[in-house]
Design goal:
The N and C termini lie far apart (64 Å). By secondary structure, the chain is α+β, with helices and mostly antiparallel strands. The model has no long low-confidence stretch (mean pLDDT 91). The chain folds into three domains: 65 residues, Roll (Structural Genomics Hypothetical 15.5 Kd Protein In mrcA-pckA Intergenic Region, Chain A); 81 residues, Pseudouridine synthase (2-Layer Sandwich), CATH 3.30.2350.10; 152 residues, 2-Layer Sandwich (Pseudouridine synthase), CATH 3.30.2350.10.
Amino acid sequence: MKREKLTVPADAGPMRLDQFLATQAGIASRGTAQRLIKNGNVWIDGEPARKPSTRVFPGAVITYEAFEPEPVHLVARPFPLEILYEDEAIIVVNKPPHRVVHPAPGHTDDTLVNALLAHTPHLASMGGPRRPGIVHRLDKGTSGVLVVAKTDEAYLALTRQFKERLVKKTYHALVYGQMDEERGTIEHAIARSARDRKKMAVARVPGGGREAVTDWKVKRAYSGLSFLELSPRTGRTHQLRVHLSALGHPIVGDPVYGRRRWPTTGVLAPLAKEVKKLGRQALHASRITFFHPLSQEKMTIKAPFPGDLKDLLKKLDELFT
């Protein structure tokens, strides 16, 4: 491990310790910063830091120990890309299902970032060495619209919009069960699961977790299934999947938060093979609205459903008409 010492700059203003550390080389994310703090590897003015939420002020001396960063060599791989929009500042793509967004353990050269680098060498340097230009993400199994910054100026402008909740996203999902109402709102804070730290869960302790709000409405109703339009007001990890599971309507095919299996008997049984072929959560990011980082023009970009979800919905429509 290496030990680094730095001073909070005068123009930084008061901020959370984990937020400040996440900007430093060798840390690159708030999650890593939080682990260092909790493991006793961070000091403020010589005193051990206790909480990631501790406020640090200009002039404070922060000392931290972190592992030497492994060299990152991103490889350009020419996978097919469905480009929805592109100019000198941004590129918007329709991410296919089963594609990881950026390199991670087990996925070093088969990610969306690798394909983007094959398409253009001009991606923002910000976002981390493995995530150039990535301002938001989609889970591996989730398909749909994704905005990527090609310049640092665009990256900063887009991340600011996400932080200020100016970006509006719309998803569609096929879930188990029929909703009691035509529309509604789910308001449950989300935190790390106490049983499995790799999963998220609805916070059970009052005041625990982070605020998470999802609006939903029914687009189509089938026997034992509902096709929903989802509009998250916040952007928590796995928010839609956790919220719908907590509501008792898990997303069809969700391998982590789904508690139901497709029925092998009854009216839905003939589509069991289609769901197995889907092999993922039936969740698609279908629309995003934001302000162009250079022109400030309001833009709405839509992503067509991928073939697997489109085929499943078509067969459901045929089955129930």
